[in-house]
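Escalated from tier 1: S-adenosylmethionine holo job.
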Amino acid sequence: MLSYQHIYHAGNMADIHKHLWLITVLDYLNKKDKPYCWLDTHSGRGLYDLSSKEANKTEEYKSGIDRFYSSLIADNDLPHQLQLYRQIIENLQGNSEHKINTYPGSAYISAKIIRNADRFYGFDLHKQEFSHLKEALASFKNAKIEQKSGYDGLKALFPPQQRRGGVLIDPSYEIKDEYEQCAKAIIKAYKKWPQGVYMIWYPIMTQGYHSNLLEPLKALNLEAEDLLTDEWHFDGLYHNMIGSGMAIINPPYSSEKTMKSVRKHVSNLLK
Ligand SMILES: C[S@@+](CC[C@H](N)C(=O)[O-])C[C@H]1O[C@@H](n2cnc3c(N)ncnc32)[C@H](O)[C@@H]1O
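Tier 2 regenerated the structure:
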């Protein structure tokens, strides 16, 4: 029985890290005319209501997007990736120049950024999350969603017909062996399709569980530029989660450098 609901965490610093990486990768894929296929194995609900009682129980968004939303809107000198992020957020229903009420999740962001000829496939196992997701993505004709395990979706769809694209894997890590399970699913998919971009988000907990995900990926012995990890640390903000990690197999050229400058800009907005 699944109990995790992302609404309690939506818009926190880990979401910002993950979603800015997602935008950076999709924006890069959009640079070539050739259509691509993008998967989101753990889609969540697509759009998150920050005025809900769940979001306000934890108030994680308050130390995340809420803290720099007004300066993000007012900034006329944003790097391109942050401009895209801002455009997506400011056009959502309920958001105004001064107040953010709705935060976009990975599935909504992806559906918004891909082009008409590209394809998006999203998955969520949770009945309630899936029904929100359906509503959030209803107007996107090239987005297909299914209420089933994203790991099964990955197995069924990779390699995709388009032979271009990749996947975001953003599990809830409710059970401790999900780190190993996730690594196994990625390695299987990678062996079938070594050209895809594989983005895997992981929490950095005080217990260090994430090494169970990273060690098997490192054992693939990829060239240094074909497996990168990027970690943002935020001690003391979210109980025993002390940071947010993103591992990427086949990261787009120069994406690490781009994200470094995006990170710097975010830090300035947070000051
Ligand atoms: C961390 S949340 C996803 C957040 C989302 N990616 C975003 O950025 O908005 C994880 C989601 O995975 C769902 N889930 C858990 N196990 C799953 C599985 N095996 N396949 C698909 N979805 C799953 C949960 O219901 C939850 O909505």
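The mean pLDDT is 96.
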